[in-house]
Amino acid sequence: MATSRIHLFLLLLLFLFTSTFITSQQNEDEPPKLSLDSSEQEASYRVIDSVNYAIPRQTIFPNDLCASPPDDIVCDFFTGNNVVTSIHVTELRFGYISDYRQNPHCSPNSALDPLLFTSFKPLRKVFFYKCFTGNKVSLPETIPEGFSSVLEELVFIGNPSLVGKVSSLIGNFTKLRRLVLTGNGFHGSIPGRISDLVSLQEITFSRNSLSDGFPTLYRLRNLKVVDFSHNFLDGNAPDSIGDLTEFLKLDLRFNEFSEDMPFSIGKLKNLEFLYLSYNHFGNYGAPLFLVEMPRLREVYLSGNQFGDRIPEVWKNLEGISGIGFSRMGPQGNIPASMGSSPKNLCYLALDNNNLDGQIPKEFGFLEFANEINLENNNLIGKTPFSDNFRDRIRKKFKLSGNPNLHVVKISGPAISSSASFWWF
Question: Residue 393 belongs to what domain range?
């Protein structure tokens, strides 16, 4: 009996020791129970209420916002001397975020509370999607100097009632990677100070009312994406654009740029997406610079004056999937290599030009094509497309406006690269 009691006592000691050890380990691994500073919490409520006052956030989240934050807010811990010392709001995200996050929509009469720019010093990301669509909301004239110097992303998308100058949003953001201002009411020129944001990887200013010329970007050596489309920018692209060798996408569509594209654009060896449609570029013949861009996946030059002939560059562009050469004015024959070299061509637009001759038979082998537009040219002869090819593309297969072009039947199944080619 005594031995059993001793064993029981030892088991009890072991249990107490193990429980104490596990608890201490958990306490060491878990961050300390810190709460958001009261002034920062109050500012958070204010900013949240300004974009949707109909949802009583202070009632729904009455205690520490960072303990169980709403989808609008992301918090993070901060350390000093390897010890967690504080917790702060690091992301503010209003409006739609993704199909997997059910963020509350912004109110039609959302406002922009000034506390956004004064109360969140460690802020890394700011995101507003379709929040300012009713009453006019003005940006502050300048960003306060105390606004987050660690900001990485500043995004305003689909806010037509948000007005002001882009220069108002250019602060001391030495770590800013993404500056996305799309579909807002911004006007004026793109400030030269943007070149001070040396960490930028993306600048997207599309669908605003920006004017004047192309900004100086030569210092932004990490830049991968520039999208100035759908504005009123004019002048010409500077020769220094060729120094931005990390470029993956350049989108200048629907502006008023003129003169020639600088020859230095050929230095952009990594470029994958080139969109220059509907400007006033050109006047120096075919865009031969394309031959120096072997990684191009899409090129859209429609609505400019790249006259002369379609260049023979397609053997160097085997990976291209989209070509837009509408309303450019080229004449002469369509190069056969345009149909044989690109292996994954999906979209081809050569309409409203002065092209003549026959459609190369290689075009009948474009097995991935889902849209072909050759309308309003001077093409002649018989078409090289099978019935199955035409049926697959249907309304996106366009040949009208070529009075001497004859659509013929081609027997057999859908054409592939190994199929026999029959004319009737």
Answer: 312-424
